[in-house]
């Protein structure tokens, strides 16, 4: 737990810097562009992140899962260098596949954009270019290497490049090119810079062995590898759907101005979703390395998340209107209640982060995907109705509903998993009479059976 909180501290430090810089570039972008043009900007960014999310595999999870080798005699996590090289080769091969697949998807989406997105024709090539840059800057593999080695401080330092470049680029765009293209160039430069920084830091400990690139070695060693790959990819896709696709659809159903206002409300109100992802990224390696205490770690983190979520929602209620009026233009003040609702959704996601990580670490990535898929798809299907009912607030309620149903589903799935393990353990004990079985049951110490917790 001490190392876990230290790792979360490093990640949160990076997120705090990111948040501070985001206030700078949101202020500059909203005031330079206005609500309509900012909506065009938000749609292009969401399109690029959607394409990347659809094509990208969660390779950091593969490296953590297949590059680890349990713990040593002192209880410290051990990285197996040979396994790490093999997992890295598999991850890089998947990244290259992502770039090819994503470019095709980007071409299709941008070509058909006039049919469903409120984007001017002269911005379509800008959108395609940003999609390609985002794909080329995929960085989950070096991030996974740093997490496998518990190098959270190094990862935080490298990731700080992105918000710094964005803020600096936004300042330049404000003075030299105060239009959508100028701010998109700033965002694209930040994507490339952070990817380069992470690869440099990750390769510093041990050079990347490109001869290990293979899409077959890991699946040959782990029969369930492709199922895990596609499950985590689809879970990542759902995460993108909940954040980026919904902005695209808000633009489709409500226009560019509504998309721009919703983006600002989401940026401020759903900062907790970023915090939830931070906790999830820090806790998954611990759960994989320490399966004996996985359930207890997840329980403690969920309890802390409840307190943090309540504080954040109260802060949004009391300071949200001032933040919108100060950071963005007056036109954005109408999105206050959407921001509050999205902050509640963020608090719910914060509680669910450790629960979802527990399922994934227990080898139930497919279950986690299904639990999140149903409410996410339902929210997207009902989004048009929600916007017609109450505009941006209706869209925010759709996000809140999807988050709430998903977290409830995670909790139920974990309860069922524990009950199955306990039942199996009790049945095995009742059917055994040998001395080895008696020893396995313990000597009346009252300890919780091993099978009472999920196991990878």
TrEMBL record:
<feature type="transmembrane region" description="Helical">
    <location>
        <begin position="367"/>
        <end position="389"/>
    </location>
</feature>
<keyword id="KW-1003">Cell membrane</keyword>
<feature type="transmembrane region" description="Helical">
    <location>
        <begin position="123"/>
        <end position="140"/>
    </location>
</feature>
<feature type="transmembrane region" description="Helical">
    <location>
        <begin position="38"/>
        <end position="57"/>
    </location>
</feature>
<dbReference type="Pfam" id="PF01943">
    <property type="entry name" value="Polysacc_synt"/>
</dbReference>
<dbReference type="InterPro" id="IPR002797">
    <property type="entry name" value="Polysacc_synth"/>
</dbReference>
<keyword id="KW-0472">Membrane</keyword>
<keyword id="KW-0812">Transmembrane</keyword>
<feature type="region of interest" description="Disordered">
    <location>
        <begin position="428"/>
        <end position="456"/>
    </location>
</feature>
<feature type="transmembrane region" description="Helical">
    <location>
        <begin position="181"/>
        <end position="202"/>
    </location>
</feature>
<feature type="transmembrane region" description="Helical">
    <location>
        <begin position="395"/>
        <end position="414"/>
    </location>
</feature>
<feature type="transmembrane region" description="Helical">
    <location>
        <begin position="334"/>
        <end position="355"/>
    </location>
</feature>
<dbReference type="InterPro" id="IPR050833">
    <property type="entry name" value="Poly_Biosynth_Transport"/>
</dbReference>
<feature type="transmembrane region" description="Helical">
    <location>
        <begin position="304"/>
        <end position="328"/>
    </location>
</feature>
<dbReference type="GO" id="GO:0005886">
    <property type="term" value="C:plasma membrane"/>
</dbReference>
<keyword id="KW-1133">Transmembrane helix</keyword>
<feature type="transmembrane region" description="Helical">
    <location>
        <begin position="89"/>
        <end position="111"/>
    </location>
</feature>
<protein>
    <recommendedName>
        <fullName>Polysaccharide biosynthesis protein</fullName>
    </recommendedName>
</protein>
């Amino acid at each position: 737990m001490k190392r876990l909180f230290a790792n979360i501290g490093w990640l949160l430090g990076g997120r705090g810097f990111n948040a501070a810089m985001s206030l700078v570039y949101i202020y500059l972008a909203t005031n330079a562009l206005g609500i309509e043009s900012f909506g065009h900007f938000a749609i292009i960014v969401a399109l690029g992140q959607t394409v990347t999310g659809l094509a990208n595999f969660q390779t950091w999870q593969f490296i953590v899962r297949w590059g680890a080798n349990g713990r040593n005699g002192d209880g410290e996590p051990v990285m197996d260098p040979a396994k790490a090289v093999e997992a890295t080769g598999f991850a890089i091969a998947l990244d290259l596949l992502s770039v090819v697949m994503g470019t095709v998807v980007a071409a299709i989406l941008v070509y058909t954009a006039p049919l469903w997105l409120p984007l001017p024709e002269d911005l379509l090539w800008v959108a395609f270019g940003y999609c390609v840059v985002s794909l080329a800057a995929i960085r989950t593999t070096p991030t996974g290497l740093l997490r496998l080695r518990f190098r959270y401080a190094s990862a935080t330092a490298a990731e700080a490049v992105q918000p710094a470049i964005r803020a600096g680029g936004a300042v330049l765009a404000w003075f030299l090119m105060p239009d959508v293209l100028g701010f998109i160039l700033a965002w694209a430069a930040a994507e490339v810079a952070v990817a380069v920084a992470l690869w440099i830091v990750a390769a510093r400990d041990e050079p990347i062995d490109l001869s290990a690139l293979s899409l077959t070695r890991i699946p040959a060693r782990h029969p369930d590898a492709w199922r895990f790959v596609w499950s985590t990819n689809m879970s990542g896709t759902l995460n993108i759907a909940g954040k980026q696709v919904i902005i695209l659809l808000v633009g489709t159903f409500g226009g560019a101005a509504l998309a721009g206002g919703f983006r600002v409300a989401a940026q401020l109100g759903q900062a907790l979703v970023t915090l939830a992802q931070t906790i999830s990224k820090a806790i998954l390696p611990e759960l994989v390395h320490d399966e004996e205490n996985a359930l207890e770690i997840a329980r403690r983190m969920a309890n802390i998340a409840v307190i943090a979520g309540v504080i954040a929602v109260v802060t949004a209620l009391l300071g949200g209107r001032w933040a919108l009026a100060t950071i963005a233009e007056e036109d954005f003040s109408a999105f206050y209640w959407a921001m509050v609702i999205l902050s509640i959704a963020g608090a719910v996601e914060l509680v669910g982060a450790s629960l979802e990580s527990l399922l994934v670490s227990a080898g139930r990535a497919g279950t986690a995907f299904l639990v999140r898929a149903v409410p996410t798809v339902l929210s997207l299907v009902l989004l048009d109705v929600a916007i017609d009912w109450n505009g941006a607030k209706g869209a925010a309620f759709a996000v809140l509903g999807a988050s709430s149903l998903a977290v409830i589903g995670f909790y139920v799935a974990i309860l069922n998993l524990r009950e199955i393990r306990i039942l199996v353990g009790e049945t095995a004990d009742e059917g055994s009479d040998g001395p080895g079985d008696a020893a396995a049951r313990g000597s009346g110490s009252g300890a919780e059976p091993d099978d009472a917790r999920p196991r990878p």
